[in-house]
């Protein structure tokens, strides 16, 4: 065995789970060697084929790779499979499909019949139990219920998600999983129509097809008379949520909403800045700071970065001052570490192969046109060539993208011409984080910006290692302000 490809803990049965090692293996088989070492790769050995592919899509990709390699071999257990010659997936993809639709089907059934949804326990309801038998999410948890109702009422009264989460944590109320409340957690509980008996499936409220009324589930839910909140309360809350999304201009990316203000700004150091204040629990907060647009009477101070963690009183800093200072640091760092050297001059390994395939496709098409071959004879071949060409073209695009991101040979003049997203890419590749310390007690609000309160931590990756800047970490997108 010369090379080992392993997608740890990744299922091979789901379309939406990317399998990087599987892809790399297919590419290496296609090219006949491993990318960085050049070790020849002529096939694949696996204890069972299900470890390699389960989806028809993966089967086709794997088979194409073996064929392109010119008779690559696949050994399963002790036997050689003639995969390159067969044209049908040897296992039933229908089985995968069947399991998937069975799960989806039962979800729909449960919702339409108003049965309590399966899944993890929701805050406010009791979990499932075997003896005595009790389904989960059906019966009220009398201890949590008043807190859930209080959350709903607070939101309906205009309190922020952050404020509600902070209150819960201060009162020592734990989430369903025993943790601390976050803004998202509170929003998740209050926005879920389960508390009044409703259910959302595929983005829409489940309604009775005959009456158009929401289906009320057969689980304990709020009672307008007893709890003082109900369906109408929920509708009002959700209208507020939609209005806030609309104002921020984040509703439906791509859809232009006429009433929306300017698109949300992206700030250079959002997500890189971390909060350095001790939070309510006595820990350094370390939450990511997000940029906020200054509005109203604060507009004259300019946009600001702010910690939005519900357990923290927060730190804030003006964007203009922070950006100017940190931009200078980043540029100096780039000059010092990346100006020397030049980008890795590695050419993509597949140029010859791609040219060959294009020529082959051209020849086959020409022979059809000339009447030397019929479509029936070579149609399958053309389809395969098309797929091969497409996958190699994709690989070449990825290659040039990763070269573009190589910082070696850096020139400061580039910076001015870069878009904010490109600058953020560069920043994320050199700057791990910047801790923002709170302004000391007693310092005036008007005190000038103090760069000593920013503590940068740089990425340690040596620029000489070719792997250092592949797959650089991206800053996690910040949720918008609300
Ligand atoms: Zn904080």
TrEMBL record:
Pfam families: Recombinase. Residues 100-123 are annotated as: Disordered. Keywords: DNA recombination, DNA-binding. Residues 100-115 have a biased composition (Basic and acidic residues). The keyword DNA-binding applies. Residues 151-205 form the Recombinase domain. PANTHER family: DNA-INVERTASE FROM LAMBDOID PROPHAGE, SERINE RECOMBINASE PINE-RELATED. This is Recombinase family protein. The lineage of its organism: Bacteria, Bacillati, Actinomycetota, Actinomycetes, Kitasatosporales.
């Amino acid at each position: 065995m010369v090379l080992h490809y392993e997608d740890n803990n990744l299922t091979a049965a789901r379309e939406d789970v990317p399998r990087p090692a599987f892809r790399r293996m297919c590419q290496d088989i296609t090219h006949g060697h491993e990318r960085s070492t050049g070790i020849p790769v002529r096939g694949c050995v696996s204890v069972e084929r299900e470890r390699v592919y389960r989806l028809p899509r993966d089967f086709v990709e794997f088979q194409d790779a073996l064929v392109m390699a010119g008779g690559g071999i696949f050994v399963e257990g002790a036997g050689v499979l003639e995969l390159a010659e067969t044209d049908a997936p040897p296992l039933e993809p229908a089985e995968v499909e069947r399991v998937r639709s069975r799960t989806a089907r039962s979800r729909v059934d449960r919702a339409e019949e108003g049965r309590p949804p399966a899944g993890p326990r929701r805050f406010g309801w009791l979990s499932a139990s075997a003896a005595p038998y009790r389904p989960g999410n059906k019966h009220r948890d009398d201890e949590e219920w008043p807190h859930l109702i209080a959350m709903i009422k607070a939101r309906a009264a205009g309190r922020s998600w952050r404020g509600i989460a902070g209150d819960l944590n201060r009162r020592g109320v734990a989430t369903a999983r025993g943790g601390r409340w976050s803004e998202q957690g509170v929003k998740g509980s209050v926005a879920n129509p389960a508390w009044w008996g409703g259910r959302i499936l595929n983005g829409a409220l489940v309604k009775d097809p005959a009456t158009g009324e929401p289906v009320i589930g057969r689980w304990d839910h709020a009672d307008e008379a007893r709890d003082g909140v109900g369906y109408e309360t929920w509708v009002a809350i959700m209208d507020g949520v939609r209005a806030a999304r609309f104002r921020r201009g984040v509703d439906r990316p791509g859809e232009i909403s006429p009433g929306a203000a300017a698109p949300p700004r992206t700030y250079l150091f959002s997500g890189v800045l971390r909060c350095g204040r001790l939070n309510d629990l006595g820990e350094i907060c370390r939450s990511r700071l997000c940029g906020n647009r200054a509005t109203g009477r604060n507009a004259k101070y300019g946009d600001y970065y702010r910690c939005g963690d519900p357990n923290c009183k927060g730190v804030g800093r003006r964007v203009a001052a922070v950006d100017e200072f940190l931009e200078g640091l980043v540029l100096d760092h780039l000059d010092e570490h990346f100006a020397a050297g030049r980008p890795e001059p590695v050419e993509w390994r597949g140029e010859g192969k791609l040219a060959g395939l294009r020529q082959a496709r051209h020849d086959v098409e020409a022979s059809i046109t000339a009447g030397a071959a019929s479509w029936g004879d070579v149609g399958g071949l053309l389809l395969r060539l098309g797929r091969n060409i497409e996958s190699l073209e994709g690989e070449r695009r990825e290659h040039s993208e990763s070269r573009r991101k190589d910082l070696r040979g850096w020139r400061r003049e580039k910076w001015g011409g870069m878009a904010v997203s490109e600058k953020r890419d560069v920043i994320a590749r050199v700057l791990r984080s910047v801790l923002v310390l709170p302004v000391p007690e007693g310092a005036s609000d008007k005190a000038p910006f103090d760069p000593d309160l920013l503590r940068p931590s740089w990425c340690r990756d040596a620029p000489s290692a070719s792997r250092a800047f592949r797959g650089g970490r991206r800053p996690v997108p910040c949720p918008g302000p609300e």
